Amino acid sequence: MPELDLPPPPPELHFALPAFRDLCNRRPFSQGVPLPLPATEILAWSQLTGQRMTQRDFTLVTVLDHAWLKAIRSEEPH
Questions:
Q1: If you count DSSP H runs as helices and E runs as strands, how many of each does the chain have, helices first?
Q2: What is the pTM of this model?
Q3: Are residues 45 and 37 in contact, defined by beta-carbon separation less than 8 angstroms?
Q4: InterPro entries, alphabetically (predicted)?
């Protein structure tokens, strides 16, 4: 699969985007359906990795998660 030629993410996402990618591996599922990342999982990730997460970073991760879930659910057959 060829790589996409995309512009770099905005500076505001330099922390949140890698955090979100890492957290996706810890996402809960129910009956094969991805669920939102729990706040407790996001905060645990921050503590375990030693990455200090600001309220803004937390919000950005949850916004990315919401957008990802919306995109995934729109691809599912109805």
A1: 3, 2
A2: 0.84
A3: no
A4: Phage_TAC_18
